[in-house]
Amino acid sequence: MLLALNGTVACSPNLNVPSQPIPERDIAAKAAAMAGASILDIDLYTPSAVLPGCSGKNELVVRTIESPTLQSALQQAQAYSDSQSGLALMVIHQDALIYESYADNVSVRSRTESFSMMKSVTSLMVGIALEKGVIKNVDDPIGNYLDEWRNDPRERITIRQLLTMSSGLQSFPFGVPGGETEKLLYSTNINAVALGYPLSGTPGAVFQYNNVNSQLIGAAIDRSLRRQGNGSFAKFMQENLWCPLGNGEATLWLDRKGGSPHFYSGLQASARDWARLGELIRNQGKVGVKQIVPQNWISEMLRPSDTNPAYGLHIWRGQAWQNVRKYDPASSFGVSHSEAYLAPDVYFFDGFGGQRVYIIPSENLTIVRVGEASMTYDDSIIVNLLLAAI
Known about the structure:
Elements: E1 2-3, E2 9-10, H1 27-34, E3 48-51, H2 68-83, E4 86-93, E5 96-102, E6 112-113, H3 117-132, H4 159-163, H5 180-186, H6 190-195, H7 211-227, H8 233-245, E7 250-253, E8 267-269, H9 271-282, E9 286-287, E10 290-291, H10 295-302, E11 316-317, E12 324-326, E13 334-336, E14 347-351, E15 355-360, E16 365-371, H11 381-389
Parallel strand pairs: 2-3
Antiparallel strand pairs: 1-2, 3-7, 4-5, 4-16, 6-8, 7-8, 9-10, 11-14, 12-13, 14-15, 15-16
Helix pairs in contact: 2-11, 3-7
């Protein structure tokens, strides 16, 4: 293992390291240090595993906008993003970058914290893991991969149920000092925390957005890789997704040095990297002529789940319009969608407070929007402005 100068953990050919004693951490102090952090404060998300990337392999083609109508829509979209503390806005249309703008303190090379947009990346990695034989079947019980749950009722939860947020595992409230959600963020052993979540409902019955689902999926892939002698999740992601995409250097937030990534959050990457991820989905898993993610997995990701038609396999769907999109049916918190989308096939990565990658295949359109967390962000405005103009 190689340690970078900034305290992060660089990917080496083999990240299987001898077991080390798990260090202790003052979770309350860590939570206080993270409170109010900007998404630009990526130095707070340490230690981390570095994805070196392979920038230059898949450069975005740039095209000049000639349509006054589209130029006006882009200006309006930019103004709205700015009003919601926007930091970056990118638009790719018909395979070309037609718009790219950054706030004064941000550049094309800036990496930002993406929050739950990592969940959609974890789903892409499931598709690759299935193709490579790391995971046998998406309908496998998770107990096949997590030894701690053998002979436990939770072992029967399937990977699909975790992906559709219908695992039946307990959902704990945010903002409780020392609570389970805080431990899942800041513990030095987040997989142990995740494995301690109790079953509170019937798996497959109810949609309940829960970070623990993503953590368990990633842990299953990581453990299977290590059992097969194929290194870590970070190494697997670098070799099979990040580098083939032509993405630049990025970081995965770890719970401790040599420990586990946060599989539901904590991927720090540039707006252009996120744009290439969106384009990967729009192009049915291909980069040029090369199939990076199986086409059938992309189709599976985008299909509506049984318990929530607005959700697929760790990706949101715009077809089932609601004025307020709820993450949890029992919670009052949600994201405004003031209008129904003007296209029937809007899919998106959702990061807390307005981090988004929107993918609209019918219009050959991908939009990346990055900004400081805003609780008044409206999901329909930028997308519909551009759809109406295109």
